Amino acid sequence: MCISNALGGRELERFEGIAEQNNAIHKGDQVFRSGEPLRVLHVLRSGCVKSSSISEDGAEQIIRFHLPGEMLGLNSVGTGFHHCTATALDSASVCEIPYRRLQDMADRIPVLNQRLFRMMSREIERDEQLLMLLGKKSASERVARFLVNLSQLFGQRGFSTREFNLTMARREIANYLGLTVETVSRSFRMFQDEGALEVEGKHITVRDPDCLYRLGGLPFQPAARVSNQ
């Protein structure tokens, strides 16, 4: 669990004491719903979850994809209510942490409080990156940057940055990026033609990271180069 990495000894034992056991959830199950009060924070242990909201015309808008190690519900701390719905995209498991107990513990353990602030800061940063992506980038750049970001997130969790599965469907990627399904599929074909990717269903192999970064309008970062794992 990412938040426990900052703790040790008795502090870690105390933290593990408030974390409830893993709960298995199935594809399509809702972890929490928009409008519900924030009572627990959920740490995703396995699987993939999407956060989405419903617009005034009843259309779903996906605002985040969550991978293992992420904490769900941090963006609700300010209001005390969930303003989006979290839904499992495949079989997954989550660990529940009662919010009030975590808050009390963070008040007594500075390093835990600092870790929570850093996690919330990353949430804000990701929101800002999405706004910039939707506002200024071309369709192909949006898709390329989405894949680059996904690759980096897998790498941060100890997985391969070069081979991974897309749990989300093309239509969900399109919804998240503000594009049509056809545009997303066309971008994937273009990336294959350019030699950046190999796509087999939902399985992605990054053949040329430099090329993928370039297609996303990004300078390639050698530190991001990770061999197949």
Account of the protein in words:
The protein is an alpha+beta fold. It has two domains: 2-133, Jelly Rolls (Sandwich), CATH 2.60.120; 137-224, Winged helix-like DNA-binding domain superfamily/Winged helix DNA-binding domain (Arc Repressor Mutant, subunit A, Orthogonal Bundle). 41% of the residues lie in helices and 22% in strands. It contains seven helices and eleven strands. It has helices at 9-18, 99-108, 110-136, 139-156, 170-177, 181-193, 209-215, and strands at residues 22-25, 30-32, 40-46, 49-54, 60-66, 71-72, 85-88, 92-98, 163-165, 197-200, 203-206. The strands form three sheets. It has a four-stranded antiparallel beta sheet. A hairpin with a 2-residue loop joins strand 10 and strand 11 (203-206). It starts with 8 loop residues before the first helix and ends in a 14-residue tail after the last helix. The relative contact order is 0.13. The model is unreliable at 4-8 and 223-229 (pLDDT under 50).
